[in-house]
Each structure stands twice: as structure tokens, then as C-alpha cells.
């Protein structure tokens, strides 16, 4: 299949591109680098040993998107393009609604125009309401989202359900991610948040490598195994494989289906810190601070529907994720911040919207 990956150089998108290529699919990738680095394009080509077309575009630009769909016969879209910081979404809600809803609508319009009927959407466990029992199943209550980011995912799910209902023959999978962690085994791609990380794993990794002084533990007085928050951390490679399984599932189906992608296991902040220290041999200084507003004590998935219907289960452990995050962090202590390479790549992209030029062929 030829898959258009919107937002394909971000953390989840980039790992998914590798899994798609490994699975024998062709990919056409687009990103505007608003929260990722152009360096990723070359790294993906190097790791996979495969060339793929790349477009430096904002997918909300419908004319440019139309150009991509005209250049390539697309069979399926995977939609990762969007803003994803919970805290930022509270400060700039309009940007989040415009960007996340706008990208979803633009992609649906391009699909309608070009007769593409399959889409996999990057949703989130954040769409679930806060009063639910754990573990969360796909039938747990949604809505009452804690922040605008969560609402954008909730609304995009609704847009996609309505678009699938209006276009007979469309098949849409909404994938609700739990907490992605880890990095590709090569250590050449990984999570590289802009500025100070708000998520736990990148904060731990940056503390271990000496970029941050100490980890703030947001509360140790929850009713959990050791008082710290419990989450369902899923290795990024497993999450990426979930997308390949979802694409296979769409074949011959119509309508919308929803899947939790998680491990079904909860891990506390202290458990994750200890696993990281063990995997890295580095110490992660910590201090307990107050609870973070909006945090749940415990959140984990019932992932049995994905196992039953997609034939997918998360296979990697927290220990694997810590070892892989550490490899990425050690090899790239400043993330993708490689100013010379980034500038060269940005310049070459500025002169060509589709990077089929030699600057991308494996440097
Ligand atoms: N935590 C700390 N210190 C930190 C960061 C986090 O103690 O510096 C704790 C949190 O309190 C929580 C746990 O680590 O108990 C995980 O926090 P994250 O910020 O890594 O993840 P969240 O579960 O809060 O949210 C993430 C994404 C959301 C997504 C959600 C899905 O940020 O976008 O997972 O469950 F919706």
C-alpha cells in the first residue's frame, strides 16, 4: 500500500514510517517541522535504506495537499499532524483548535477529492472522561476533557466519524494512545521535545544525561503503590506496529473503529525512575513537589480489543524502553539540535517542496 503520513517526522510519526517501510509499504511523508527537525528525514532514509518522497508543507494548505495527492496514488492516510502539548493548549487554545481541526478537515477533503477511503487517526487516552473506572475500555465515557488539547482530539474523532458516515466505503481507525516512551533501537531517532519536557520519560532522560538538575515528582501522596502517579507506558516501536496492524484491519471494512493502544499495565513514577537508573547506570536526582493540576492518580488501558481484532499486543517492556531512551539520549544529548545539518536541510527544502533532490539521498 502507498501511505500518506501527515506529520511523519514527529516522535510517533517517525517511528511509524520505519515500521511501514519495514512492512513493505511505500510512504509519502509530509511535515512542516513545527515540532520536529528536518534531520529526521535523512535519518529515516539512512536507517531504512529506502528513499521516500518528502513534502515540507503544512497539511492545512489545501492547494499543496492537493498537489501531493495528485503526484501520488495514495491508498491510505495516517494522520499525526497536530499540536500536542497539554500545557500549551491551555495558553493558546485557538491555535490548537485551528491547527488540529484544520489539518483533519483538510485531509478529509483531499481524501474525498482523490477517492482515498482509508484513514488512521492519532488520538489519545486524553479523550476519556476523568471519572472512569480503570482500566479504560473503548466504551468508557469520553468528553469532559481536562484541556483544549484533549478537546481537539475528541472533536477530530467526531469529525472523522461524521466524514466516514457521509462517505460510504470509508474506513477509519481511531487509535487512542496511552503514554508512548522509548526510542528506535538504533538510537538515531527518539523523542525530542521543544524546550523543557512536560512528559515524564524525556524529563528523566534529560536529567540522567545532565541537561536538567533534578526531576520534579508531581505528588507522592496518591493512593497508588508508592504514592506516585501510575500510567500505561507503551514502547514507541509497539505503538508504531499498532498502526501497521490498524492499516491491515481497514482492508475490506467500512465505518469507524476505535482501539486503545496501551500495554494494560500501570507503572508508577518511582518505578519508571528506578528502571531508568538501572538501564542507564546514571542517577536521576528527584525532588517531590506538589501534585500537578489535572493529573489523574492512575490511568491505564484495557488493550484487549486491539489484541482480539487487530492481532496486536505490546511486546516490549519498561526496561526495553528505558534502555532505548538512554541510547537515544546518550547519542543525541541535545536531541536533533545539529545546527549546521538542520540549516543545510532547511535551505534545501526551501527551494523544493518535494525533497527528491540529492541533499536527501543519504547524507
Ligand atoms: N510526572 C512527574 N514529573 C514530571 C512529568 C510527569 O512526576 O516532570 C508524572 C505525572 O504527574 C504523571 C506521570 O508522571 O503521574 C506521567 O506524566 P506525563 O506528563 O508523562 O503523561 P500524562 O499521563 O500526564 O499525559 C500524557 C500525554 C497526554 C496524553 C496522556 C494519555 O502528555 O497528551 O498521556 O494518557 F493524553
Describe this entry's structure for a reader.
It is a single chain. This protein is of the alpha/beta class and 363 residues long. Helices cover 41% and strands 16% of the residues. It has twelve helices and 14 strands. β1, α1 and β2 form a beta-alpha-beta unit. The C terminus is likely disordered. Bound molecules: uridine-5'-diphosphate-4-deoxy-4-fluoro-alpha-D-galactose. Uridine-5'-diphosphate-4-deoxy-4-fluoro-alpha-D-galactose binds next to α7 and β8.
Low-confidence stretches: 356-363
Q: How far apart are the first and last residues' alpha carbons, in Å?
A: 27 Å
What is the strand arrangement across the widest sheet? Answer: 3-2-1-4-5-6-11
The Cα radius of gyration reads: 20 Å
Number of helices: 12
Give a list of the ligands: uridine-5'-diphosphate-4-deoxy-4-fluoro-alpha-D-galactose
Oligomer: single chain
Q: Could you tell me the strand content as a percent range?
A: 15-25%
**Biggest sheet features:** 7 strands, parallel
Q: What is the overall shape?
A: globular
- The helix content, as a percent range, equals 40-55%
| Number of E strands | 14
How would you spell out the order of helices and strands? EHEHEHEHHEHEEHEEEHEEHEEHHH
Amino acid at each position: 500500500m502507498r501511505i500518506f503520513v501527515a506529520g511523519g517526522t514527529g516522535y510517533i510519526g517517525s517511528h511509524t514510517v520505519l515500521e511501514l517501510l519495514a512492512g513493505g509499504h511505500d510512504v509519502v511523508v509530509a511535515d512542516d517541522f513545527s515540532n520536529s527537525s528536518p534531520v529526521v528525514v535523512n535519518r529515516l532514509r539512512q536507517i531504512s535504506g529506502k528513499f521516500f518522497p518528502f513534502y515540507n508543507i503544512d497539511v492545512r494548505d489545501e492547494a499543496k495537499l492537493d498537489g501531493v495527492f495528485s503526484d501520488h496514488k495514495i491508498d491510505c492516510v495516517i494522520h499525526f499532524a497536530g499540536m500536542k502539548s497539554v500545557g500549551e493548549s491551555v495558553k493558546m487554545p485557538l491555535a490548537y483548535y485551528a491547527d488540529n481541526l484544520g489539518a483533519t478537515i483538510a485531509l478529509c477533503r483531499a481524501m474525498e477529492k482523490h477517492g482515498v477511503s482509508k484513514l488512521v487517526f492519532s488520538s489519545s487516552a486524553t479523550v476519556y472522561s476523568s471519572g472512569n473506572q480503570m482500566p479504560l475500555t473503548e466504551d468508557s465515557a469520553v468528553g469532559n476533557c481536562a484541556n483544549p488539547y484533549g478537546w481537539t482530539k475528541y472533536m477530530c474523532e467526531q469529525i472523522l466519524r461524521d466524514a466516514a458516515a457521509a462517505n460510504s466505503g470509508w474506513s477509519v481507525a481511531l487509535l487512542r494512545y496511552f503514554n508512548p516512551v522509548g526510542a528506535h533501537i538504533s538510537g538515531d531517532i527518539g523523542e525530542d521535545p521543544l524546550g523543557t519536557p512536560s512528559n515524564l520519560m524525556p524529563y528523566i532522560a534529560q536529567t540522567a544525561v545532565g541537561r536538567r538538575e533534578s526531576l520534579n515528582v508531581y505528588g507522592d501522596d496518591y493512593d497508588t503503590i508508592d504514592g506516585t502517579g501510575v500510567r500505561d507506558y507503551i514502547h514507541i516501536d509497539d505503538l508504531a506496529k499498532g498502526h501497521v496492524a490498524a492499516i491491515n484491519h481497514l482492508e475490506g471494512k467500512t465505518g469507524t473503529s476505535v482501539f486503545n493502544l496501551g500495554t494494560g499495565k500501570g507503572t508508577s513514577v518511582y518505578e519508571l525512575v528506578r528502571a531508568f537508573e538501572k538501564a542507564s547506570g546514571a542517577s536521576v536526582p528527584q525532588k517531590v513537589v506538589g501534585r500537578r493540576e489535572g493529573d489523574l492518580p492512575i490511568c491505564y488501558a484495557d488493550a484487549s480489543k486491539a489484541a482480539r481484532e487487530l492481532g496486536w499486543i505490546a511486546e516490549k517492556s519498561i526496561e526495553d524502553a528505558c534502555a532505548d531512551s538512554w541510547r537515544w539520549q546518550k547519542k543525541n544529548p541535545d536531541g536533533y539540535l545539529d545546527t549546521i545539518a538542520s540549516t543545510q536541510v532547511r535551505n534545501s527544502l526551501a527551494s523544493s517542496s518535494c525533497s527528491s533532490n540529492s541533499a536527501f539521498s543519504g547524507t
